[in-house]
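Ex. 9. Protein: ABC transporter ATP-binding protein.
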Amino acid sequence: MTAMEPDFIDLDGVEKVFEVRRRVGLLRRERRRVRAVDGLTFRVARGEMVGYIGPNGAGKSTTVKMLTGILTPSGGRLRVAGIDPARERTRLARRIGVVFGQRTTLWWDLPLRDSYRLMHRMYRIPDARFRENLDRCVELLDLGALLEVPVRQLSLGQRMRGDIAAALLHDPDVLYLDEPTIGLDVVSKAKVRGFLRDLNAEQGTTVLLTTHDLTDIEQLCKRVMVIDHGRLVYDGTLSGLREAGAATRTLVVDLEREVPPIEVAGARVVRVEGTRQWLAFPASASAAPLVAEVAGAYPLVDLSVREPDIEAVIARMYAERRPVR
Ligand SMILES: Nc1ncnc2c1ncn2[C@@H]1O[C@H](COP(=O)(O)OP(=O)(O)OP(=O)(O)O)[C@@H](O)[C@H]1O
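Predicted structure tokens for ABC transporter ATP-binding protein:
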């Protein structure tokens, strides 16, 4: 299935710019443009489970909001299951589920079961399918004893499980999870992770997971994308990310034309975007011989060396959140 729909989620140069007005002094207001997402290009195949991480303010939520159609991109092209989210938000809503760890989609005063009933109607889910999905979620997420309890009385872990079920009642093809394990105790975390793993394996649901807990990624995602300042700065395995974190610098080269990934000794291409390529090389090595080699063999237009900012970001994430199991 995966091989058949490699661009199930498909972003090409997606941008989002916010205009913010700030008061400066008594009367003057200043307009400032915030580039929250700055030329994002990536594809996620159907059935993949991908971690989407980055420091605070990196642009993760903005990306997810564009993927769900809540926000319209300022530029670029974006498709989910072939649908342009901003244009056909309602049609897309039938195909996606969203869970925000910090916020609930359930009705605070109603018992869980009543929230589900409302969703049944809102999404016009066929009765048999609704019952089947609800039964499955109740069993696997252990919700049986909670169905008659008003949401406000649920613990955070119980509510999270309730929210995950709510997002799945209409059989979405894609599930976006934003911090699904935040604030949960160890047992609840394990339950949620186990459920998501099975969901992905058995139902083939495509999952995009935003989290600060790298153990979520470790246990669930073969692939992780790192975003920083609205740009994709890493796309690969978590172990590869750890390696990259071990002090590398990046040579960014602009070429006259698109060429296959550059092959030079002592560096490896970590990212290609049109005529621009990013090469990681050990921070301890000198950039000069590398630059000379690239310039000799490739149609170089411009270049710059970046200090290990991404790596610093990751290191910080690791330092802040030592994986808690
Ligand atoms: N509605 C908005 N108006 C103005 N600026 C915004 C708006 N939403 C987000 N931003 C800005 O865009 C940038 C990216 O924000 P975003 O919420 O996408 O980051 P994030 O990666 O989800 O962060 P966090 O991990 O803290 O949730 C930030 O600088 C933020 O202040």
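Check your answer against this statement. The chain has ten helices and 13 strands.
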